[in-house]
Amino acid sequence: MNIYKLGFYNVLRRRNKAVLISLLSAVTICIFVIIFTLYFSSNKAVDIVSDRMGADIIILPNNADKDAKELMYSGSPVMGFMDKSVLDEIPKENISQYSAQFFLRTLTQYGCCTFPVSYRVLGIDYDSDFLVKPWLEKNHITSLGEKEVILGVNVMPDEEGSIEIMDQVFELAGTLMPTETALDDTIIMNINDSIWLADVFFDADAGDYFLKQKPEELISAVMIKVKDGADVEKVVMDIKKSKIDAQVISLSQQKMEVKETIANVSEILMIFAGSTFLITLIALFGIFNVMASQREKEMGYLRAMGYKKSELIFMYTIEVLTIIVLGGVVGSLMGISLSGYMYDMVNKIVLMPQGAFTLADRLLPGLLGIMLSIVIGVLVSIIPVVKINKNEPKDVFTSGGVR
Question: What would be one Gene Ontology cellular-component term for the protein (predicted)?
């Protein structure tokens, strides 16, 4: 029989053992693929959002229910307000552009909206905006009129046609193509419409929401772009020195903090994955060592039949790699499919940004998992290969038995 076919035949003949070993390999590779995916996707999301954000500084209310990191990277629904007089208090010397925004969120619990889940509503000052408008132009959306909304690619209304938000009907002006930023989970409208919504929907009992002021006297954030060559951190300090009653945050600093958090979480997960890898490697070394000892007589027969040592080593390597790599493929597919669920779990504890990625981006961790399974297969083959290399036809009747 051809030595290549014999290797695959041996796997089928010992399929119960092969399945158990493949499962062990699959679990290990699955863990690694999940961690690879979380690390690569989170870091890429941070870089993409930071590169496409277009702003250097953000000013947020002191009472904002989300910090700047969540606002930038998570797309979570947010409400927070400050007096719009902060716009007049900002030192403009080193600032090239700034734009106010007004945040609301859809309220699904009142049955007042077209959406099954809560989304961020972003009111933009269309005339001064420099963050959202470029994306509208890329999507051939040339204007944003009164009572019109633009939906991020992930925002799914319950029905087609008109959009109902807080009991008010809006016309759909367009849907953004994927931006790989928080805009994908956002409903965009004119800032005047978002202020009007807050005014007509919330009654007097909601005064605390709006600092006991009228919504038209408030804003939620100010996005700032500094002049070319200006030191962002110095501009931040200048704004803070103006005694502005709000948080003044450098977005580059936020990026560094988020990346540091990702690195710390990934380090903990890698320690867990490394421990799993080591335990699996030891277990597989033991399993294949025992299997090689049990097959010494079989190898002796094959040597007596004229097979060369190199052919037997190749046959055994095929068996090991088939079993381990099969587990690696299964584990990689499991890891890719479970990474979203794992992301949700980790994100409840610590912010782990996630963006929309290409098929190649999603397959990369899976391919790394398969490559890792090949490395495992080669490593656990070492001891059995040494034993095969020592086997001689004269030993055929003195050790082992055909299993």
Answer: plasma membrane
